[in-house]
Amino acid sequence: MARLKVVFYPHPVLAKKAEPVTQFDDALKKFIQDMIETMYEENGVGLAAPQVAISKRLAVIDVSEERNKPFVIINPDIIEKHGEELMEAGCLSVPHTYDKVPRATKVKVRAQDETGKFFEIEGDGLLGHCLQHEIDHLNGKLYIDYLSPLKRKMLIKKMEKNLKHRE
After folding, report:
1. Largest CA distance in the chain
2. pLDDT computed for residue 163 by the predictor
3. Is 160 a catalytic residue?
4. What is the DSSP letter of 143?
5. What 3-state DSSP class applies to 165?
6. 85, 134, 160, 167: which one is catalytic?
């Protein structure tokens, strides 16, 4: 397995709607494993392909406390949403920043697994938030896009400052 490089805002792939996955082969399975490894290395609970500069509709998620129950959603669509609440959000592609964004309290998603088989998953709490966050990535949307221009600008400055200190 190989660790992939996470790209940061304003990388152009992050603002683009990702392309559907059409090949369900060994190369896809290896890419999924690399994404899972990268998600764990970055201490994330989710990672979308555009975050590693690959414009494909695929994300990996693991919200388990033990960090041992990863799964993949390929070509996902939210088919049901219920309620709305403000939830704290952060993002590996906008590191060192957090803010509250509106999210449905519960979602139902239809997606494909690594073999192309369709399945449905329902989520609320952290899982529901993560599903919505990763699907936003596949649609070219970041959590900072939900914020006012002033708040977004402040968070981007904070991210840039923290990234400079890491170099």
Report:
1. 45
2. 85
3. no
4. G
5. helix
6. 134
